[in-house]
């Protein structure tokens, strides 16, 4: 599988836009193309053009969770596909279009996605596990055996009774890729904890993962620094013992990546806008 980063927080090129968010273009060995997340706005489409990628040729699109920095570009994608005469299915998890906010009950700001988009017939709401066929599986997990980001406590969602409650991230989904005898996990922000998501993927596959392509939510979004250095070092130890190759970006943060790199060396890499890598 080849992955191209269409949107991320940073870029080394003046020709490409950088935004706080994520969008990945996944090209599988069998020729299928998957758009995984769409960044906060239409900027990922501009970057795609510069990189020679036509996002309207995707066989499917996936929204990893219901936050604007991953799904704010969804209207632009739907419009581009309509203009190209393409009917690309967009797979979202139940609850993705609920109201999502960051902050406290007294002081908060919206971080969700326009709920009107849920009415679009191309948007397909899936449950905890959904098979896309030929080795691709979307899945969610409520397992929390390993720690998740402390900053999750500042993220709330509107419940059915109208009150705001801590987000349980039931609207988060990841992609398991079985290809050429290898197992690859693709995750957007890993709000549920990257080790918990890895455990769920390995449970589905019945074997250890070979590679993980994921944001790990190790950065404090308010200050941009590492959220918990001790937690990152423990994560690095666990990843080292598992022997998995890791490629990360976005919410992991450079400071946390440096800690991971100290332990994992060349088995971990940081991707930015324009990165192209064979996973």
Mean pLDDT: 95
Radius of gyration: 17 Å
Q: Percent of residues in beta strands?
A: 25-35%
Principal-axis shape equals globular
**Sheet having the most strands:** 7 strands, mixed
Strand order of the largest sheet: 8-5-4-3-2-1-18
Number of strands: 18
Task: Return residue spans where pLDDT drops below 50 for at least 5 consecutive residues.
Answer: none
* Coarse structural class: alpha/beta
Order of helices and strands: EEEHEHHEEEEEEEEEEHEHEHEE
- Give the termini separation: 5 Å
Helix share bin: 10-25%
Separate helix tally: 6
GO molecular function: transferase activity
InterPro entries: DHPS-like_MBL-fold, Metallo-B-lactamas, Metallo-beta-lactamase_dom, RibonucZ/Hydroxyglut_hydro
Protein name: MBL fold metallo-hydrolase
Domain Metallo-beta-lactamase: 22-135
Topology:
Elements: E1 2-7, E2 23-27, E3 33-36, H1 43-50, E4 60-62, H2 68-71, H3 74-83, E5 90-93, E6 100-103, E7 108-110, E8 123-126, E9 129-133, E10 136-139, E11 155-158, E12 164-166, E13 174-179, E14 182-187, H4 194-205, E15 211-214, H5 229-242, E16 245-248, H6 254-264, E17 268-270, E18 276-278
Helix pairs in contact: 5-6
């Amino acid at each position: 599988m080849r992955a191209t980063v269409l949107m991320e927080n940073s870029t080394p090129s003046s020709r490409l836009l950088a935004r706080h968010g994520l969008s990945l273009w996944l090209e599988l060995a069998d020729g299928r193309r998957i758009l995984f997340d769409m960044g906060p706005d239409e900027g990922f489409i501009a970057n795609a053009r510069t990189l020679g990628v036509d996002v309207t040729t995707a066989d499917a699109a996936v929204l990893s969770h219901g936050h604007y920095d991953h799904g704010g570009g969804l209207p632009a994608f739907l419009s581009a596909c309509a203009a190209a005469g393409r009917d690309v299915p967009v797979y979202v998890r139940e609850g993705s279009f609920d109201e999502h906010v960051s902050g406290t009950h007294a002081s908060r700001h919206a971080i969700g996605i326009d709920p009107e988009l849920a009415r679009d017939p191309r948007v397909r709401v899936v449950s905890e596990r959904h098979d896309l066929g030929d080795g691709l599986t979307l899945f969610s997990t409520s397992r929390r055996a390993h720690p998740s980001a402390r900053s999750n406590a500042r993220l709330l969602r509107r419940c059915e009774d109208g009150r705001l409650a801590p987000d349980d991230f039931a609207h988060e989904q990841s992609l398991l890729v079985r290809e050429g005898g290898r197992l690859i996990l693709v995750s957007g922000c890993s709000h549920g904890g990257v080790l918990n998501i890895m455990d769920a993927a390995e449970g589905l596959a019945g074997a250890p993962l070979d590679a993980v392509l994921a944001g790990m939510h190790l950065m404090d979004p308010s200050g941009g620094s590492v959220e918990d250095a001790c937690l990152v070092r423990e994560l690095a130890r666990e990843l080292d013992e598992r022997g998995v190759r890791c490629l990360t970006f976005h919410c992991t943060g450079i400071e946390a990546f440096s800690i991971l790199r100290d332990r994992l060396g060349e088995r971990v890499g940081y991707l930015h806008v324009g990165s192209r890598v064979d996973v």
